[in-house]
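sorry to bug you again but im stuck and you know this stuff better than me. what follows is a protein written twice so to speak, once as letters and once as structure tokens for the fold. id like you to explain what the token line says about the fold, in plain words if possible. anything you notice is useful, everything is just below.
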Amino acid sequence: MEFEEINPNVCSFEKEGDAVEGILIAKQDNVGVNESKAYHLEKDGKQMMVWGTTVLNSRMDYVNVGDYIRITFKGTLKNAKGQDTKIFKVERAKAE
């Protein structure tokens, strides 16, 4: 029997308009040393992971595992404390 290593691609949003889409296959809480949220998507047999942020988490609360979604990086804005905050748009495919 042969095995292949499984490593999800970690999506990093660097420039405005960067996007990822696929079926949401899992949501995780308290992941890693920062106890962040993580979202796992799959498209065309490939898995990818997106680390949560405050803005992204608030939008992902309305998405269910099994939904086909698209996450788009909209850029960075300053929050009330003057810190850079990544802004995301989350879309869910409409049911047919």
Remarks:
- Strands lie at 9-10, 19-31, 36-43, 46-51, 68-78, 84-92.
- The chain has a mean pLDDT of 90.
- The helical segments are 54-60.
